[in-house]
# Entry
Amino acid sequence: MRSHNELSEARLSVVIPTYNRKEILRRTLRAYRSQSPQREIVEILVVDDGSTDGTDSTVAECSEGSVVIPIRYLRQEKKGLAAARNFGIREARGDLVLFGDDDIIPGPDLVAEHLAWHKKYPDPSVSVLGHVTWSPGAHPTPFMEWLGMDGVLFGFRRLAPEKEADFRFFYFCNTSVKIEFLRKNGTFDEDFRAYGFEDIELCYRMQKNGPRVLYNPKAVGYHYKQMSFADACRRAEQGAGGLGAPRLRNKGSRRLSG
# Structure
């Protein structure tokens, strides 16, 4: 791995977990292949968590002619999001890992902004949190706008550029981490198989070793998803009732008491 001073030439691996979303994944991959600093992107790793919709063929199609930015397809059989991200970490060849989601379409400067901040803050413990907003194609409603800026989904209005965010804001749908620090200080807990909280738990655990999460609002990703009030309630229930929140609480209390 490169030293602090060598991060001016850092290379980046993009890790995108996916499951049965081949159409939006196609848009996301095309947007990553259109990023301006292509030389610095070592690879795009698509980690398929057991899709049955032909995701493998979609990735192969997007890979055709991709010489500058190779797309690598990795597959596992329904082990969950945390395990998929860990698979990507193990396979990554870059100095930095940018974690995305299959429905987060990168803005044209997303990768450039992540790279610029890691060059500005070369300490291994510094991670960069990008901004996520709704894609215009998702036809965002006033409720969706509130959910993203002020509500429980992201709450970006509570963050300030270049200021440290605590573990509750460690969203891995648009976050980059120096892989040396990640591999040394811990990866995702694969007990988290359902939606939610696996990223927050990782940052909570890592903060003992001093990770700093800095918010860069110019590293924009566009969430291509419609969400109603009922959808948000189901999502919250899936996280809280689907063992994500109880598991986070139990693991946190054990670590604090231990």
Summary: The two ends are 33 Å apart (CA to CA). The domain at 4-257 is CATH 3.90.550.10 (Spore Coat Polysaccharide Biosynthesis Protein SpsA; Chain A).
